[in-house]
Every structure is written in structure tokens, then in C-alpha cells.
Amino acid sequence: MGGAYVAAQMMADIASLRIISVGGFAVDAGTLIYPFTFTLRDLVHKIGGKSAARTLIWLAAGINVFMAGFFWLVAVWPADLTTGPQLGFGNVLAPVWGIVLASIVAEVVSELIDTEAYSMWVRRFGERHQWGRVLVSNSVAIPIDSAIFVGLATAFGIFPAEVAWSIFWVNVIFKGVIAVVSIPMIYWVKPAPLGSPYSSVDH
């Protein structure tokens, strides 16, 4: 689950460099994959507890920062012109630092909030109503994530205001639909047995 979470985060951050049209509305392409990270985080939380979920969030953020820096380095590194100008890599994968920063800040803040909302639900209901863990934690984190991303990207001059609002509302709606669809996933995993190195009362 942790590997899937990090992979989804990385794919979302790369795809966010492109703004696509969905039903006539502007939306960053990372939205097509990013919503699943909230539920994947919930699964990691259930298996390993709050500490494991927090560690994974920060690990994914660090990997994404490293990835952006590595792509930047490769993009500016002089190409071997005997094979051609090779403009495609830099045009596609060179990071737009405003989007990178907005994405990573939004991811870390919203996922940490998701962790706290999930924990509060577990403390209140224990093993009952597990569907609520996903629904409530995602419902709290999703609008915060979209607001931070769009707000920072707009402040950095990446999006004009009218496009920013379109991206915000499409993000929230799409992520909300994914949250509902992904609810059954919480029943796919079991918490680690008590006494194991991965056990946690907060699952």
C-alpha cells in the first residue's frame, strides 16, 4: 500500500504540469490519479497506525521534491547533440516550480489533516462504521487540499483567477466522487495483529 501511495503521488505531481479540459472546465491532470492517495493513506493508517501514515506522507513529499530537482537537473544538463536537440524532455518534464511547491504543500497539509480526521473517527467508533473513516477524513481533507493548491498556484501566477476557480470546483467534485467510490477499499486490509512490530491501537 505504501508503494502504491508514493507512486500515485509521483504520477499526480508529474501530471499536474498539464492543465486539461474536462467537460469544458479546466483541471490539472494530476486530479485523475491524486484522489486515490487519500484512501491509500487510510489503508496504510489502518495497517500500520498513525505513525506509519505520517512517515509515509513526509517520505512521499521528500521523494517528490527530489524527483522535481532531478528532472530539473536533467533538463538543464547539456544534451548530446549528436543524437539531436532533445527538446522534448525539458518541454514536458522540467518542473514548473510554482506548481511543484503548491502541489507538495497541499499534499502534506491535507494528508496530515486526513490522518487526524481518520484517527478521531477510529477513537470514536473503533472497528465499527469503517466506511466513515474514508468518507469523513476525505471530506475534510479534499477541499483543504484543493484550496491550498489552487490558492498557491494562483499566488505564484500559474493560473488566472477565473481558471483557478474552475480547477478548484472540478477538483473537489472529482475527488469527492473518487472518495465515495473507493470506500470499499478500507475493508480489503486488516490491521496488524497486536504484538507485531506493525501493530497499533490507532487503526
Helix and strand layout, with pairings?
Elements: H1 2-15, E1 19-22, E2 25-28, H2 36-48, H3 50-76, H4 87-93, H5 97-125, H6 130-155, H7 161-181
Antiparallel strand pairs: 1-2
Helix pairs in contact: 1-2, 1-3, 2-3, 2-5, 3-4, 3-5, 5-6, 6-7
- Provide the low-confidence segments as ranges: 194-199
Just give the CATH class.
Answer: Mainly Alpha
| Topology, number of strands | 2
Q: How many discrete domains?
A: 1
Specify the CATH architecture: Orthogonal Bundle
According to CATH, the fold-level topology is Arp2/3 complex 21 kDa subunit ARPC3
Task: Give the rounded overall mean pLDDT.
Answer: 84
Biggest sheet overview: 2 strands, antiparallel
The residue fraction in helices comes out at 55-70%
Order of helices and strands: HEEHHHHHH
Structural class by sheet pairing and helices: mainly alpha
**Strand order, largest beta sheet:** 1-2
Counted by DSSP, the helix tally is: 7
Quick structural summary:
By secondary structure, this protein is mainly α.
Provide tags for this entry.
203 residues, Arp2/3 complex 21 kDa subunit ARPC3, globular, two-stranded antiparallel sheet, 7 helices, mainly alpha
Task: Please explain how this structure is put together.
With about 200 residues, the chain is mainly alpha-helical. The protein has one domain: Orthogonal Bundle (Arp2/3 complex 21 kDa subunit ARPC3). The protein is built from seven helices and two strands. It has helices at about 1-15, 35-50, 50-75, 85-95, 95-125, 130-155, 160-180, and strands spanning about 20, 25-30. It has a two-stranded antiparallel ribbon with strand order 1-2. A hairpin with a 2-residue loop joins strand 1 and strand 2. Helix 2 (about 35-50) packs across helix 3 and helix 5 packs antiparallel against helix 6. The longest helix has 29 residues, at about 95-125. It is globular. Residues about 195-200 have low confidence and may be disordered.
